[in-house]
Amino acid sequence: MKSYPRTMTDPPDLASLRLLVLVGELGSLGRAAQELGVAQPSASKRLATLERRLGLVLVDRGRRGSVLTPAGVVVTERARRVLDEMAGLLAGAAALRASREAELRVAASMTVAEHLAPGWLAELRRTRPDLHVGLRVTNSVTVARLVREGAVDLGFVEAPGPLARLSAREVAADRLAVVVPPGHRWARRPITADELARTPLVVRERGSGTRDTLDRALPDACPPALELGSTTAVRGAVVAGVAPAVLSVLAVALDLADGRLVEVPVEGLDLRRVLRAVWPGGRRLVGPAAELLAVATRRSSMGA
């Protein structure tokens, strides 16, 4: 494998970081380049420049695609934070320019925000095309805090257990799955809950609903191999071969269908959970918040 000497130079540009993140998400340099609207040779050169600047090999390029190295997984997670901060700066500037605040303020945990909320909001806007919606994406603990503080009108969480001072309603069902790359030793056999608990995993940060569900299911689990701040980063680490992970089937459905990841059956372990809408306790939802809750509940009952 190639290596680069340690180097001190200018920080990488945002376009290169965005390219690296897309390579991790899509598993292909060509697809990442297409997504950015640049030629693949230009994207390859940009990625090589990024590796030289950081003094790290970030991507393994093979005939079946491009896979992040373990160092690439960590750098990608930090790159995503940089990009998120920049997106937040730009969004904040746009908010300052806007003459009105959001008429519906929503916060959602990452699984809900990435895989369910877009469909709910699209349906709501078909009946309320002039509705201005602000959506904050964070972990379940922060969603609950924002709702309690009155910073948002409605929240969606995936964390199990009671939620103090909040009213809640189930809006969807979900299931967590143990996933590994196809070459992993678990890819061809089931495992036990004890075997899973003895194995260091790639996990989400504390406060996420996925981490909370896993900790409740395996209270005596060994320390994690790696702790990351987003589902996408955890997924990329598994694809790179860092360690197994436990993720929502909503988040890995395409990877399982395409064969990039394999689900491992676990004997004696139930990882089903419910996804809930939450709002301040003792209050009756009205207006757009009530309408969005109705959409989410109806689509759940229809299996959408």
From TrEMBL:
It comes from the Bacteria. InterPro entries: LysR_HTH_N, LysR_subst-bd, WH-like_DNA-bd_sf, WH_DNA-bd_sf. This is DNA-binding transcriptional LysR family regulator. GO terms for molecular function: DNA-binding transcription factor activity; transcription cis-regulatory region binding. PANTHER family: HTH-TYPE TRANSCRIPTIONAL REGULATOR, HTH-TYPE TRANSCRIPTIONAL REGULATOR CYSL. Keywords: DNA-binding, Transcription, Transcription regulation. PROSITE patterns: HTH_LYSR. Pfam families: HTH_1 (PF00126), LysR_substrate (PF03466). Belongs to the LysR transcriptional regulatory family. The lineage of its organism: Bacteria, Bacillati, Actinomycetota, Actinomycetes, Pseudonocardiales. Residues 12-69 form the HTH lysR-type domain.
